[in-house]
Amino acid sequence: MGSFSIWHWLIVLAVVLLLFGRGKIPELMGDVAKGIKSFKKGMKDDEESTQAQERRGLDDHSGQTVQRETKTDKTTV
């Protein structure tokens, strides 16, 4: 009752082929592959731009003292 036989899987495959047709499934898989490739490329580009910004940030302040303004809220009770 918990597992499917080969006949169940063949019926499911036939229904999927009827719904999507022979040409539609490879097209869908191609679109999925393109999406994965563009996602990986975007992640790689994002990492490279972050590293480049970090390098630029380090290069801009070489030999200089960086001063930052800090706000302190001192209240007496």
TrEMBL record:
Q: Where in the cell is it found?
A: Cell membrane
Alphabetical list of InterPro entries matching this protein: TatA/B/E (IPR003369), TatA/E (IPR006312)
Q: Would you name any one GO CC term?
A: TAT protein transport complex
A single Gene Ontology MF term assigned here is: protein transmembrane transporter activity
Q: Which domain of life is it from?
A: Bacteria
Topology class, membrane:
Single-pass membrane protein
Question: TM spans, by residue?
Answer: 6-25
Q: Where is this region: Disordered?
A: 40-77
Q: What are the alphabetically sorted keywords of the record? A: Cell membrane, Membrane, Protein transport, Translocation, Transmembrane, Transmembrane helix, Transport
GO process annotations (BP): protein transport by the Tat complex
UniProt entry tagged with the keyword Mitochondrion = no
Chief subcellular site?
A: membrane
Kindly indicate whether the keyword Thylakoid belongs to this entry.
no
Q: Where is the composition biased (Basic and acidic residues)?
A: 53-77
Q: Name one Pfam family in it.
A: TatA_B_E
What HAMAP family does UniProt report for this protein, alphabetically?
A: TatA_E
Outline what the protein does: Part of the twin-arginine translocation (Tat) system that transports large folded proteins containing a characteristic twin-arginine motif in their signal peptide across membranes. TatA could form the protein-conducting channel of the Tat system.
Query: PANTHER family in the record, alphabetically?
Result: SEC-INDEPENDENT PROTEIN TRANSLOCASE PROTEIN TATA
Provide the family line.
Belongs to the TatA/E family.
Subunit structure as annotated in this protein's UniProt entry: The Tat system comprises two distinct complexes: a TatABC complex, containing multiple copies of TatA, TatB and TatC subunits, and a separate TatA complex, containing only TatA subunits. Substrates initially bind to the TatABC complex, which probably triggers association of the separate TatA complex to form the active translocon.
Instruction: Write down what this protein is called.
Output: Sec-independent protein translocase protein TatA
Q: Which organism is it from?
A: Fulvimarina pelagi HTCC2506
